[in-house]
Amino acid sequence: MSLTLQEANRIAGAAIAHAETLGIGICVAVCDAGGRLLAFQRMDGTTWAAVYGSQGKAAASAAFGRPSGDLTERADHPTFRGIVAADGGRMILGKGAVPVMRDGAVIGACGVGGGTGEEDEDCARAGASCVS
Amino acid sequence: MSLTLQEANRIAGAAIAHAETLGIGICVAVCDAGGRLLAFQRMDGTTWAAVYGSQGKAAASAAFGRPSGDLTERADHPTFRGIVAADGGRMILGKGAVPVMRDGAVIGACGVGGGTGEEDEDCARAGASCVS
Amino acid sequence: MSLTLQEANRIAGAAIAHAETLGIGICVAVCDAGGRLLAFQRMDGTTWAAVYGSQGKAAASAAFGRPSGDLTERADHPTFRGIVAADGGRMILGKGAVPVMRDGAVIGACGVGGGTGEEDEDCARAGASCVS
Amino acid sequence: MSLTLQEANRIAGAAIAHAETLGIGICVAVCDAGGRLLAFQRMDGTTWAAVYGSQGKAAASAAFGRPSGDLTERADHPTFRGIVAADGGRMILGKGAVPVMRDGAVIGACGVGGGTGEEDEDCARAGASCVS
Q1: Which of the four pLDDT bands, split at 50, 70 and 90, describes residue B1?
Q2: Domains of chain C: which residue ranges?
Q3: C34 Cβ under 8 Å from any chain D Cβ
Q4: Rounded to an integer, what distance in angstroms lies between the CA atom of residue D106 and that of residue D6?
Q5: DSSP string for residues in A17-34
Q6: Hey, CA dihedral for D69, D71, D74, D80, is it positive or negative?
Q7: Of D59, A38, B27, nearest in space to C85 by CA
Q8: Which of A67, B105, B114, C105 lies deepest, with the highest CB count within 10 Å?
Q9: Using CA of residue B132, residue C6, residue C12, residue C13, what is the dihedral sign?
Q10: What's the CATH code, domain C5-128?
């Protein structure tokens, strides 16, 4: 059931291909269901802030089983702040990541940073959609 | 006076039974009067973010002797922030947990995560109400 | 591939049954492959220190895919200290937990606290061995 | 002067190829001169503890411009502890990473986790040596 490295690399490649059509540079992080990194790629010239953004958003999508951007409005709510803190402060509840699903279960997530939140999420979806 | 493991499991079972009637997956944490875990159950397919949410809300309910959701509005008040910090950051002042009372005393709490705050609290009440 | 709640409860029950034959009280924590809690039980009268010990050792066993006690000698090595810190300080590299394996893959872990390290690991093995 | 993503992937691929000749599973992290991640790969079945180990060792090698294992003996020295803490606690001064050099300058590092310290460093060297 779990994502293989080959699948993770396919996801990352599809996200990068989409970023190229948008003319932007991105970091893309693919993690497992537990939020632990499987594969990561930083396109040349992409700011290293996106190293953290892409990974934190991927972890949040895996943790909650939904796009990290769906949680942004509630990021300051005590429940969400508390969960993020309890996990060690790694998760980022910002737009740019989606879970990777198989047979109705979360098997990982794809997180992107470097563009706008919209662009990042579009790249993440392009990545995640190539595995199902 | 204190909750037995058998009672804690009865509470968890009743919370899960209620979650099933709502058609949702939950994590349920039952702690003692000191906020320390007695029993925990994660229903299949429930996101692991709820592992932290259910426990943090149960601890808050035990600490303050009231539903954790009753404290959400005051979560940013320095007194509450300070108390949470002083305990190591474990408590979560969000909706979804209730204390377990016996003879007017707090003997523990039941915390739930995985649904909306309302659903979580309903499940927690269903759990707590089967011990009195 | 992942552990179900039913399996996790079977593991916890077998660990407790073994503790009863030893005449000790334990906490038993069963987590998934990512180190996130699935089921937890604290036997009546067991100290709450074991709440943290059982969970931390289970997380370490899941993270490293081996008994947590096999890592105790190296717990002060910079590599192990660094990994524990990077994960948020949750893992405990002490004796008392074993991974749960299926088809050669780590699918979770069983961690026990409350007895001596030897007793805890024996209980954890009794738990883990009933799922394979 | 800086490493390209293509080079980083070549380094990661060479480290994995070496791990395969050793019959072990690894995580390999390639970072830039500033210790920020460029590319990461986790071989199937590799424990997630190595996710943190590989990255922390790569960051240390980039920071100090030498193999991270050369610093293990001094890891408890206040100067090194202080530098690690000042960077947020990410660096790991354990064996398993080497800097990537070009024209006498550090342009990045390759960090590996999953094997013994020796095996990890051998894989890291195999990776780093294919770019010069």
Answers
A1: confident
A2: 5-128
A3: yes
A4: 18
A5: HHHHHHT---EEEEEETT
A6: negative
A7: D59
A8: B114
A9: positive
A10: 3.30.450.150
Pair type for strands A37-42 and D105-113: unpaired
pTM: 0.95
Query: Can you list the alpha helix ranges (DSSP code H) found in A1-132?
Result: 5-22, 49-64, 78-86, 117-128
Q: What's the complex ipTM?
A: 0.96
Q: What is the pLDDT of residues D25-35, one digit of tens each?
A: 999 999 999 99
**Would you tell me the crossing angle of helices D49-64 and D117-128 to the nearest 10 degrees?**
60
Q: Cβ–Cβ of A82/B55 closer than 8 Å? A: no
Nearest CA in chain C to D116: C79
- Chain C neighbours among D 41-100 (CB < 8 Å)? 45, 47-49, 52-53, 55-57, 72, 75-76, 89-96
> In angstroms, rounded to a whole number, what is the distance separating the alpha carbons of residues A91 and A66?
13
Considering only alpha carbons, which residue of chain A is nearest residue B113?
A79
Contact A83 B90 (CB under 8 A): no
B38/chain A closest Cα distance in angstroms: 19
> What is the residue whose two structure tokens read 């039952």?
B30
Show pLDDT as tens, one digit a residue, over chain C (132 residues): 799 999 999 999 999 999 999 999 999 999 999 999 999 999 999 999 999 999 999 999 999 999 999 999 999 999 999 999 999 999 999 999 999 999 989 999 999 999 999 999 999 999 999 997
